[in-house]
Amino acid sequence: MEVVIVPDAKAGGELIAEAMAALIRRKPDALLGVATGSTPLPIYEALAAKVAAGAVDASTARICQLDEYVGLPQGHPESYRSVVLREVVEPLGLTPSSFMGPDGSAADVQAACEAYDQALAASGGVDLQLLGIGTDGHIGFNEPCSSLSSRTRIKTLTNQTRVDNARFFDNDIEQVPHHVITQGIGTILEARHLVLLATGEGKADAVAATVEGPLSALVPASALQLHRHATVVVDEAAASKLKLAEYFRATFAAKPEWQGL
Ligand code: F6R
């Protein structure tokens, strides 16, 4: 696992957006797995700026969702489909048909989970999967004690996650769905490159447990330790509990620039 400490969220967004742009230049139909929530927004803003400046043409890239709320009506502004269309697909100039996601409003949610897992496998695989991290160590919505080999399935959100996400629902926890569809940890680990961004002091404990703690289902993000190409980008605040911070800084500083992330 490579850990990169950046001054702030904007710098993290720029670094990851450049890695995504480089991937798209190499592979114009790359499949990019996107996360939602607040953390990845600086990445999407930086990548959209590159597209607007003509530094990369993302129009043939493909996008897939990491997770989705269950039970929100189609078109709900906080459904992750709506968020990804608004924050990623439109600003990057992608065609909506290049976008895959699980159907959180399906009558048969289990079948929707299986169909999405199969669609991901049939797509040729995710080239780069962006991840955020929950304060409880979740990735996607694999809450603590998720199986490290889990596939896309329905999960129940912890109370902590519902409290954390109430800000997207008028600060009213009652409006936050209890259930989600999430790519499983086993599904996520199949992506060729995992890039996790964590910013802010509130993520410091989860980051330390992910990077320096034991591999444990109690900290689902620690599964990144199993991946051959996982990059964890953290700002100073989120890095504040890392014992090996100086080593990570020195390692990245010594890395040849051409290697990228
Ligand atoms: C959302 C997702 C979640 C978030 C996590 C952090 O698609 O997969 O794992 O990344 O809950 O959310 P923020 O970035 O809002 O702190």
From TrEMBL:
The record marks 146, 153, 155-156 as: Part of the allosteric site. It catalyses: alpha-D-glucosamine 6-phosphate + H2O = beta-D-fructose 6-phosphate + NH4(+). It comes from Streptomyces beijiangensis. One of its GO terms (molecular function) is identical protein binding. InterPro entries: Glc/Gal-6P_isomerase, Glucosamine6P_isomerase, Glucosamine6P_isomerase_CS, NagB/RpiA_transferase-like. Its EC number is 3.5.99.6. Pathway: Amino-sugar metabolism; N-acetylneuraminate degradation; D-fructose 6-phosphate from N-acetylneuraminate: step 5/5. Residues 10-230 form the Glucosamine/galactosamine-6-phosphate isomerase domain. This is Glucosamine-6-phosphate deaminase. Belongs to the glucosamine/galactosamine-6-phosphate isomerase family. NagB subfamily. The gene is nagB. The lineage of its organism: Bacteria, Bacillati, Actinomycetota, Actinomycetes, Kitasatosporales.
